[in-house]
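As a representative case, we now present a protein record of this kind.
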Amino acid sequence: MINKLVANIKKTGAPIVVGLDPMLNYIPEQVQKKAFAEYGETLEGAAEAIWQFNKAIVDNTYDLIPAVKPQIAMYEQFGIPGMQAFKKTVDYCKEKGLVVIGDIKRGDIGSTSAAYAVGHLGKVAVGSKNYAAFDEDFATVNPYLGSDGVNPFLDVCKEEKKGIFVLVKTSNPSSGEFQDQEIDGRPLYELVGEKVAAWGTEAMGDEYSYVGAVVGATYPEMGKVLRKIMPKAYILVPGYGAQGGKGKDLVHFFNEDGLGAIVNSSRGIIAAYKQEKYAKFGAENFADASRAAVEDMVADIKGALG
């Protein structure tokens, strides 16, 4: 699947991923009202509003982008109906030819980690049959429990030709409380980066590994170091836009071939209509505002990369 991601990025010329992280307050009133009229102010109503919101944004942006990244927590909060909306979103995006990165941040050991890997990337056995449950193309993985937590994902990735993005240096302000702690004079995130590079040698695509890394746009100097440590790992870069990252901050996340990184923006795109810059579209044309925000983001990054 890393080969498809790279191919999609080359085809679109857009090294970006749209984070489908829908909060109800991002969803325009007319979309909510329609869903509530059919299902009431229920979990089912919220899930329908999320699904219709996602569908409209995907319909208006899929030709411009290589991938999407639904964040599972935004769906889990609405229980089983929310998870059904998550699955519908995954399936619809794949029908549109998009690569789907399941932002699930799983991290456990043994049979539990294997179950997460199977549920999101692999196939689960039911009697004599096998089923792909959520069936994303990539998943985000927390490496805090070590190789015991990552290896089951690697096994499924090799079997299914899918991929993972391992959390290395995250974009949130308090990430340094653990990730920047020094061990023998080196920050922990560098040691995790070295493990990502090592894991990646076991699962290579044509140009890049199935094992990628998450490195926040808010730490460009650290991104520069980690790019050298993980030359064959694709870097998923959160923190663009709403969290303060700009195109000029991202140059060092990319390799000289202009590949090697994919930059995420979530609310900066899906809730673009709420920004002053895109207010002219209005809530009724929220998906058109999202398209304009995608075009601006692509131009910003391309301009920075030259």
